[in-house]
Amino acid sequence: MPDNLFPRPEHDHGSCIEHAIGRAHEICAEKSVRLTALRESVLRVLLSSHKALGAYEIIERLQTDGRRLAPISVYRIIDVLLSAGLAHRLESKNAFFACLSEHDSANSMLVLVCDGCYRVAEAEAPDAWGAIKSVTQSSGFAVTETILEIQGTCADCRKTTRPAA
Amino acid sequence: MPDNLFPRPEHDHGSCIEHAIGRAHEICAEKSVRLTALRESVLRVLLSSHKALGAYEIIERLQTDGRRLAPISVYRIIDVLLSAGLAHRLESKNAFFACLSEHDSANSMLVLVCDGCYRVAEAEAPDAWGAIKSVTQSSGFAVTETILEIQGTCADCRKTTRPAA
DNA sequence: AGATGTCTGTAACAATATTGCATTATTCTG
DNA sequence: CAGAATAATGCAATATTGTTACAGACATCT
User: Fold this and answer.
1) Are A24 and A40 in contact (CB under 8 A)?
2) Which one of A128, A131, A155 has the shortest CB-CB distance to B139?
3) Contact B119, B111 (CB under 8 A)
């Protein structure tokens, strides 16, 4: 049993972020992608919440002094993060979240979205992907991308009445 | 083998639409939903294409004389069609398509989207849903909605080089 | 340093979706 | 059938999400 797939509310969030940033630098080095200061700061915004954030929400959380990043800049940076696999798009919400799992392609993964705390979690689901594959193959459909997003209530939110984050 | 899940290019599209409209009236009667002239015409637009159409695309295709439906009107009508189960939302494209299957809830269904011809098809995928359920249950996640959309190339488009519709 | 390519900034704009309120139809009740 | 209540549609404005085109800044490599 994978148990709760969402981060524990009491987890050490600071080190969780730093660890992810470290991994991100490694991954970018491997892939020859430049994780610039700006890109890292966008990734940090995503990592800070365990939620999926809209592009404009990222802009708001990013603005330090009075400076506001232009939409196009955020979208460009998001594109980079997406194609490096450091973040994913939540199609059902037009939003983006940082990837914490160690998967390569999105193959065999599924996304859980909690309606209570808005947090997002990824999980392995090879059986589901196998079943999908058998449907598509028997109908002659050549798959290029699979979107598997599940909305509901996470274990923490079900326990505590109040949202977990 | 379900074979090709998309409508044959040569199918009798006129009667296919009329049959679906007939079913829609039955369903609305059952559910005490009023399928007004305007709502039916929006449904017809969706049925006419076997594709997922954006709200503004519906507006364009709908305008007869010079009159253009306001966005809000289309969105309201779409909401009605969605909640009656006569149409579904394609989350990955912010678009909507008419439902041709006979399923009750969206449970156990999956959506195929062809990148070539832009057509949409639904398929039964009970095994995939079973596998998903086992992941969510073991992690204590209470599912309210599952989004399962698959992009790729349909059998017709793979055969013909040129898109099937 | 100079050439090249990548990254970021600025401004305008396109596409998608919603809010609030007014008006018209339809249904319900007496 | 009149009048009230409810549902459907119209209208205007605006919010949210995403893109295009072009210019300037920064890094990297000879």
Assistant:
1) yes
2) A155
3) no
Which residue's structure tokens are 């204590």?
Answer: B140
Segment A115-130 mean pLDDT: 95
Query: Could you say which of B3, B115, B140 has the minimum Cβ distance to residue A4?
Result: B140
Tokens read off for A104: 């390569």
Picking from A124, A135, A144 by the largest number of B CB atoms within 10 A of its own CB, the best residue to mutate is A135
Q: Residue B106 pLDDT > 80, yes or no?
A: no
Cα nearest neighbour of A110 on chain B: B132
CA-to-CA distance for B44 and B18, rounded, in angstroms? 9
A94 touches strand D (CB under 7 A): yes
Question: What pLDDT does residue B26 have?
Answer: 96
Taken in order B12, B14, B20, B23, is the CA torsion positive or negative? negative
Q: What is the pLDDT of residues B7-29, one digit of tens each?
A: 998 999 999 999 999 999 999 99
CA gap B123, A135 in Å, rounded: 8
**What structural domains does chain B harbor?**
13-160 (1.10.10.10)
B34 touches strand D (CB under 7 A): yes
Averaged pLDDT score across all residues of chain B: 93
